[in-house]
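Chapter review. Work through the record for D-ribose ABC transporter substrate-binding protein before attempting the end-of-chapter questions.
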Amino acid sequence: MDRRKFLSTIGVGAAAAGLAACASDSDDDTDAQGESGGGDEGGLITIIVNDPSNPYWKTEGDLAAAKAEELGYSATVGAHKGDTNEENSLVDTAISNQSVAMIMDPADADGSIGAVKKVLDADIPVFLINAEINESGLAKAQLVSNNAQGAAIGAEEWVSRMEEEGEYVELFGLPSDNNAQTRSNGFETTITQYPDLEKVGEEVANWDRTEGRDKAQTLLQAHPDISGIISGNDEMALGAIAALKEADAFEGIVVGGFDGSPDAIESIKNGELAYTVLQPVAEFAEKVIEMADDFLTNGTEPEEEKQAFDCILITEDNVDNMVDDFIYEE
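Structure tokens for D-ribose ABC transporter substrate-binding protein:
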């Protein structure tokens, strides 16, 4: 059986989505040249991601840094935690450190455009992962999960578990992240095909487990007869499960997630979370470094700026195929 870091189908085109690790530097801060990469002189690749308290973003940063070092670069990983001011500070540091390339999971679809332009003005190529900015032609590439496809397969599973009827609520992600709206739109497109499913409430929980718990409590108090919760990511979904348990209301409520996080996988195994949608972060975190290396070494431009990587539905039927954090084996 071949082990793969979630080798998904890559749908190249406009990815209608825009979501790494805490500020943590590589132990090796020296320039390095590797046999399989490194350009003419190696150099530092700066990776700027979101918040390592979420295992998704930690995996993103860790795997990108490891791949950069494998290819003969030094790497540093910083976290903006959704703060564009912190993102700008990290960008300034990357420029002063003479980075040869920047990998960024942008903090804000609009607010991060200026940071990207600042890096480009310093003649440093930028490659975006996981989330997009609302301007094309700046980054060499924007690599994201196919959030529309992932939302559709998740919603289809959720509808089936709901038996196509009942009242439900939604937990919405971070509004400044295009991924949140794309997933919500994908849920709605599928669910509205079933007239006996009625959405009675929605709360923004900003991708956060604690907020997911608190907002789920608010929704439960307002709508005690719900039979389902659909969530834009796993952290919010797991927070909702905690709220349901505290209210002694978990039995019979269908909760669906999105990300494929380790805790979500355990929750599925424990019969709690109905499903999750695995994002291919393990794949595109490495792919983006390969693209940067190819550009630095050979001057090769990515064929398409925006590239979307398909997601995989994870249920109790295939959960044992998760062999490591965010890594799926067929």
